[in-house]
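Input.
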Amino acid sequence: MQLSATLTVMVQAARKAARGLQRDFGEVENLQVSRKGPGDFVTAADLKAEKILREELAKARPGYSFLLEEAGEVKGSDKSHRWIIDPLDGTTNFMHGIPVFAISIALERAGEVVAGLVYNPVTDEMFLAEKGRGAFLNNRRLRVAARTELADAVICTGIPHLGRASPLFLPMLSELMPRVAGIRRTGSAALDLAYVAAGRFDGFWEAGLAPWDMAAGVCLIREAGGTVSDLSGKDKIFETGGVLTANERLHGPLLDLLKKARKSAASNT
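Output.
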């Protein structure tokens, strides 16, 4: 694919930040680690990668605002553009030497995500998308999977852990498990969404996510022809923190099952 100026800036920033992550991942036992909250860790590598991304993007696009996982919101003079960044999605995997983590960068223009990048520095897989220009993996055009039956579908999700309890997760899992070919959990929502765009997973759902977990991946999926909504079927993903995505044929049946689970859980309380 021919990279636009915007994607070129994003790729260059991601590759520069990735060098530190690759080095630190190779010496994962020696990482300086501090607790950010129950079950939620932040590493020196995480903070260093965010600093590099912020510096590189600010240098290329002065004035743009930022929404960063670690530093929070940083207002710029350009109120219509905002970078949404997770420097290390899958921190727990990273800390345990599991090579399933990613840098996630999205560009929001006037409230709409118009470009996304998800990059795994270990596998060197670079997922890119820009509104109206399609989604790509290392120059290969992406399309969501074409399966039409839930019985043939592999669905991915995030499992609640210490500090992130969800009373709806088990009812939702119980509804889906008997009806699909398999359920998977990788530990990186950004990669989960990228894998849906690439057709590796047929669908994905999760609650309790932040914009930086989802923004780039949602752009990838939409440009790959997928359907994205919140867990109620509406377009309030960032407001609710819940996301459901699949191809057009599977999204409706999946949504119906999740709604059934919510209704059942509510009636049992």
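The radius of gyration is 18 Å.
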